[in-house]
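Batch job 17 of 40 flagged for manual review because the log was empty.
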Amino acid sequence: MISVLMSIYNENLSWIQQSIESILGQTYRDFEFIIIVDNPYIGDEIIEFLDRQCENDGRIKLIRNEQNVGLARSLNLGIHIASGDYIARMDADDISEKNRFEREIQFIKEGEYDLVSAYKINIDENGNEIGVDLPIDRNPNKVLRYSNIIVHPLVLVKTEVLKRLNGYRLLINSEDLDLWLRMIDSGYRLGILKEYLLRYRVRFNSASVERQLEQYYINKYIIKLMKERKENGKDSFSIEHQREYIKNKKITDKKKRKFFYANKNIEIALREINNRRYLGSMWYILCATICFPQLTIDKLYNYYHSNLERYKLSE
């Protein structure tokens, strides 16, 4: 059986309805659906909708946090009460294809993986398609330290593995990347099914823009912890240590703006490189370098190492 974990925070009713319906309509029917509301002030219409869903489908377990505790704590609560052999992640604003669980459960068993993900189709806030993941053959066990190619809301993972690793750690963000790397360090196998099984909603809001620089530094912190584990067998993670690390980065509004502009340009440059338009990428690389040189270096370095297999190169 699969235990599906969904945390709801600030998604609107329409997105939540589409997301839940896509789970309840799965061709693979043997699952429980654990929905955690991590917002005590969420609208009454959403709670009424969720209550009706519980009454109509006994597979749904609804949990309401008394206060906002964040995604990592909410998911850890779900892991603790999950009774399935596998845990599937789902976000409350995405839409799963109806055969997602059927294909993922088959893939994880046949490949003898401990975790699997798949490809996604990106949609905007109105549900319009705006792009798809590139079908690139890359081994996540080799490239995750350079690029997080695991789509979190597409993950199917063995429950026993999550419990052995004590679930997600309480990072400010990117708790999923930290978990995947700890899995790899513990010898677990991760795989990616080359099928498009999720419509992933890209939300263009000021909060996500504001947190881009913070996430960049947290990702570097996670890689630092990974290197510590390789050298010492353990890392120095603690909530206080994480806060101190971010505080020392001296994040300012000006720094955020420069990072945002640099990130926008380097992403365009990498798309040009990916399409073999190398000359066209140079202007965007220059603009990114002027604004935030370290980001540009990191992005180019990580792109190269995460695409070695694609270009038939060897380290």
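Reviewer: the log was empty due to a logging misconfiguration, but the result itself is present. The CA atoms of residues 210 and 253 lie 9 Å apart. Unflagging and moving on to job 18.
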